[in-house]
Design goal:
The complex is a heterodimer of chains A (about 600) and B (about 290).
Chain A: H1 2-8, H2 19-30, H3 32-49, H4 51-54, H5 86-122, H6 124-139, H7 142-153, H8 157-184, H9 187-194, H10 199-235, H11 246-255, H12 265-293, E1 315-316, E2 328-340, E3 346-358, E4 362-366, H13 373-380, E5 388-397, E6 400-401, H14 407-413, E7 418-421, H15 435-447, H16 451-464, H17 470-475, H18 483-495, E8 501-505, H19 513-530, E9 533-538, H20 541-547, E10 550-555, E11 558-564, H21 565-570, H22 575-583
Parallel strand pairs in A: 1-11, 4-9, 4-10, 7-8, 8-9
Antiparallel strand pairs in A: 2-3, 2-5, 5-6, 10-11
Helix pairs in contact in A: 1-10, 2-12, 3-5, 3-12, 5-6, 5-8, 5-10, 6-8, 7-8, 8-10, 9-10, 10-11, 10-12, 11-12, 15-16, 15-18, 16-18, 18-19
Chain B: E1 4-15, E2 25-36, E3 40-44, H1 51-58, E4 64-71, E5 74-75, H2 81-87, E6 91-94, H3 108-117, H4 123-136, H5 153-165, E7 171-175, H6 183-200, E8 203-208, H7 211-217, E9 220-225, E10 228-234, H8 235-240, H9 245-253, H10 259-278
Classes of the chains: A alpha/beta (about 600), B alpha/beta (about 290).
Pfam family, one (chain A): OppC_N
GO cellular component, one term (chain A): plasma membrane
InterPro entries (chain A): AAA+_ATPase, ABC_Ni/Peptide_Import, ABC_transporter-like_ATP-bd, ABC_transporter-like_CS, MetI-like, MetI-like_sf, OppC_N, P-loop_NTPase
Chain lengths: ~600, ~290
């Protein structure tokens, strides 16, 4: 397995320099912690490598006259209990300690990463067996095993480090197999299989890159542990007494702690600083690597990177008979929303938005992703993500400016007077609590009613939103119900406190069309029953046509066209609105039958 | 041999269920469908209907329990990995999610060159082909040096299409390729699919939940419901004048972007549901 892996690691397109890797190095160099720790480790490694050149004397030659000589003179750091030069011993000891650590780390990484890759990628029986073995190894008391090994195999730092490496390999195994089984179901791995890549190639190209970051971070941490444990073993006198190690020097110094306390300092510094440097390097690597390895997903409604804001007049349609009258429930005036950037500037995502929702009216806010429609909805609820804030404008709800309300007053308003239906029903239900609990809790807090009363109300509501067995759904947990059902539950929760204004953010986008139709019916019925004002955020013109009395079309953070739904659908005037209507496929011609069997039958060209 | 490029006959796909005595989960039940060279066959259904599984079975990514999938007359339902790899030049894929279908750590050029270099196309030739592919999907030539995260959803989907085209396949399985895209982007990507098909004669198995999208692109349409094909035939007829009660329900459930027409459609849908209920058919039942 290892052999096939290494031969496959040679990238097929050697010339294309891995942009990710070079920039990774550059970023690490920019990280002060990373540079400092890396520089220290390189220095230690260099000192160790050059020990034969640098060491003033032979570290093993004792001198009876110089026992415990103080620092200075011939011995820069003094001499130890046998009259050997401490500086020379320290230099030589770092060779052994570092090499020993490296050996244990290599064994652990080689075993753990290889088995983790195989287990994560193929799973089946290998995964079962290997996780048993890993569990067994982790259950073994490491020090005891090392003691036993020393008793049987003799005091060799190399054997004990190999054994220690094996004992540590489960750490790599677990991290790697988890990362691999995560990536195995990624679509790009499927795409690579369909492209005709062999398993070895897929692992080398697509899987190893994912494993790289966690494995490197783990390695830094493990290295620190290995150095510390190894020093501990030597300190206890379980290493090879004939060769200098940091732990062994510590042990010697400890024996002379009353006569020459300073001696304890040098090996302690070496061990301590190396471990700290490794731990800090691990931290720096994590900061650098994990920022690169996460693909940036831009979800619908997330703040767009840049928005070009151009001032142009909003196309306003005249009111039709029967529209534009009635009590104004919500009036948004000149709303602008910005996000503070790390460099101190402000990215504006919504600019100068005016919006009115009347009682008993459904106002649709339509636009494509990044148009700012969800940001507008969130700002009305005062629930903008961290970093986002209202830059200017007013949000008046029944004459009261929401932007000026205290957080406490706003909390009293949310849920009671202004309710919210989110886009993804499942992620808005807490999997740890039953549906009933999640429905009754807000009612008891908001309306101050008893548990029994809240339950009765919740059951009524569940029946009202078309759930056939309210009792069962009430007792169920979110994972036991379907997406459509979850959205009904959330709608029931939203109307449970008789709100005046309902803000629905893409309430049917995650649902199947047949379920969507039912939920739209439900929303329409509830809206007229409770005589609510509704702000409906959507990208679907069908949903708008079905439900909305009034439409505002948003683009790049601005409203470009607004008016009664019927007149906008009949006569879209803004070029952008027209282009959106043109993209609608509903009235498009069907493709028709396949008439000509076209060109190119490249039979056998690729077999 | 007929002019059928792909023939799926009585296909059964089952997934094992945890627990020793549990019956396996039957995701596809005796599904039969066929695709001619240069044809686009639309596959419509709701989530869990098995439409994606059918696409994955054709790609060799789902276990075939029964029935057969024949490509060019040859049964490909139980190929070894090696044989499958040889076939990959002929059958390609475009997945739904443009965010997870491209490896975030690879440049566009590496992504597009990958299927070529495994077939020992030399580097200069591969680079030339990559430029050509980017041009075919209307992306700038310098896109090759950039990473997927620098592109929008629509552009990423173009990259995925370019990757599928790299080996000049004869069939592309398109698994909801436009459902993650904005309306206007969706229209442009669909035009690209159409243009490529007319130019190269590649066949599509086009999986989607959106009847309007499928109507726009498909010569013939199959409607799936709970692992079975309930209606199958001419695209115009199936998507405009469906016979099966489930397809009728599906068609009327999609809201029309016109308040007046939508009001009519809503009324029609209510009538249909009432009629179906009176006829004793459970929602979306099979005739």
């Amino acid at each position: 397995m290892t052999e096939t892996l290494t031969s496959a690691q040679v990238p097929p397109v050697a010339g294309s320099a891995s942009a990710a890797r070079t920039s990774l190095w550059r970023r690490l160099v920019k990280n002060p912690l990373g540079v400092a720790s890396l520089a220290f480790l390189v220095l230690v490694a260099l000192l160790a490598a050059l020990a034969p050149v640098l060491a003033p004397t032979d570290p093993a030659v004792p001198s009876a006259v110089d026992v415990l000589a103080p620092p200075g003179g011939d011995y820069l750091l003094g001499a130890d209990g046998s009259g050997r030069d401490i500086l020379s011993r320290l230099l030589y000891a770092s060779r052994l300690s570092l090499l020993g650590g490296l050996l244990a780390l290599t064994v652990a990484a080689a075993l753990g990463i290889t088995s983790g890759l195989v287990a994560g990628y193929y799973s089946r029986w290998f995964e079962t067996v290997s996780s048993w073995v890993a569990g067994l190894l982790q259950a073994l008391p490491g020090i005891v095993v090392l003691l036993a090994a020393r008793a049987v195999l003799g005091p060799s730092i190399w054997t004990s480090m190999v054994i220690f490496g094996i004992l540590l390999s489960p750490a790599f195994y677990r991290v790697v197999s988890a990362a691999v089984s995560g990536v195995r179901h990624e679509l790009y791995v499927d795409a690579a299989r369909v492209s005709g890549l062999s398993d070895e190639r897929i692992i080398a190209r697509h899987v190893l890159t994912v494993v790289r970051a966690p494995a490197i971070i783990l390695a830094a941490g493990i290295a620190a542990i290995v150095i510390a444990i190894q020093a501990g073993l030597d300190f206890l006198g379980l290493g090879d007494p004939t060769r200098p190690t940091w732990g062994g020097m510590l042990s010697d110094a400890f024996a002379n702690i009353y006569r020459a306390p300073l001696m304890l300092l040098w090996p302690s510094l070496a061990i301590g600083l190396t471990c700290i440097a490794l731990a800090l390097l691990g931290n720096a690597l994590r900061d650098v690597l994990e920022r690169t390895s996460t693909p940036k997903k831009r979800r619908r409604g997330a703040a767009p990177a840049t928005v070009e804001v151009r001032s142009e007049p909003v196309v306003v349609h005249d009111e039709l008979p029967g529209t534009g009258s009635g009590e104004e429930l919500l009036h948004v005036d000149g709303l602008s929303i910005g996000y503070d950037q790390p460099d101190g500037s402000l990215t504006t995502v919504v600019e100068d938005v005016d919006l009115t929702v009347r009682r008993g009216e459904v106002h649709g806010l339509v636009g494509e992703s990044g148009s700012g429609k969800t940001q507008t909805a969130w700002s009305i609820l005062r629930l903008l993500p961290p970093g986002g804030r209202m830059v200017s404008g007013a949000i008046e709800f029944e004459g009261e400016d929401l932007a000026k309300l205290s957080e406490k007053a706003m909390t009293r308003l949310r849920g009671r007077r202004i309710a919210y239906i989110p886009q993804e029903p499942m992620s808005n239900l807490d999997p740890a609590f039953s549906i009933g609990h999640q429905l009754t809790e807000p009612m008891r807090v908001a309306l101050g009613i008893s548990r029994a009363e809240a339950k009765g109300r919740a059951l009524d509501l569940l029946a009202r939103v078309g759930i056939t067995d309210p009792q069962r759904t009430f007792a169920a947990y979110p994972h036991e119900i379907s997406g459509g059902m979850a959205q009904r539950v959330l709608i029931a929760g939203a109307v449970s406190c008789n709100p005046d204004l309902l803000i629905a953010d893409e309430p049917t986008t995650a649902l199947d069309v047949t379920v969507q139709a039912e939920v739209l019916d439900l929303l329409r019925d509830l809206q007229s029953e409770f005589h609510m004002g509704v702000l409906l955020v959507t990208h679907n013109f069908g949903v708008v046509a079905d439900l909305c009395d009034r439409v505002s079309v948003m683009r790049n953070g601005r409203i470009v066209e607004t008016g009664p739904a019927r007149s906008i659908f009949a006569d879209p005037r803004h070029a952008y609105t027209r282009s959106l209507f043109a993209a609608v496929l509903e009235d498009a011609e069907p493709r028709g039958e396949l008439t000509t069997v076209p060109v190119a039958t490249r039979e056998g060209a690729h077999s | 041999m007929s002019d059928r490029l792909l023939e799926v006959e009585d296909l059964v796909v089952e997934y094992p269920v945890k627990g020793r005595r549990a019956a396996p989960l039957r995701v596809l039940k005796d599904v039969s469908v066929d695709i001619r060279a240069g044809e686009c066959v639309g596959l419509v259904g709701e989530s869990g209907s098995g439409k994606t599984t059918l696409g994955r079975a054709v790609l060799g990514l789902a276990p075939v329990t029964g029935g057969s999938i024949r490509y060019g007359g040859r049964d490909i339902s139980h190929l070894s990995r090696r044989e499958r790899r040889a076939l990959s030049a002929d059958i390609q894929v475009v997945f739904q999610d443009p965010y997870t279908s491209l490896n975030p750590a690879m440049t566009i050029e590496q992504i597009l060159a990958e299927p070529l270099t495994v077939r020992d196309v030399d580097r200069a030739e591969a680079r030339r082909r990559v430029r050509d592919l980017l041009d075919q999907v209307q992306l700038p030539a310098d896109a090759g040096n950039r990473l997927p995260r620098e592109f929008s959803g629509g552009q990423r989907q173009r990259i995925a299409i370019a990757r599928a085209l790299a080996l000049e396949p004869r069939l592309i399985v398109c698994d909801e390729p436009v459902s993650a895209l904005d309306l206007s982007t969706q229209a442009r990507v669909l035009e690209l699919f159409k243009e490529i098909q007319e130019r190269t004669g590649v066949a599509y198995l086009f999986v989607s939940h959106d009847l309007a999208v499928v109507r726009h692109l498909s010569h013939r349409v199959a409607v799936m419901y709970r692992g079975e094909i309930v209606e199958w035939g001419d695209g115009d007829q199936v998507t405009s004048r469906p016979q099966h009660p489930y397809t009728q329900k599906l068609l009327l459930a999609a809201p029309v972007p016109d308040p007046v027409k939508q009001q009519q459609r809503r009324a029609e849908r209510r009538r249909l549901l009432t009629a179906q209920r009176q006829a004793g058919q459970p929602a979306g039942a099979l005739s």
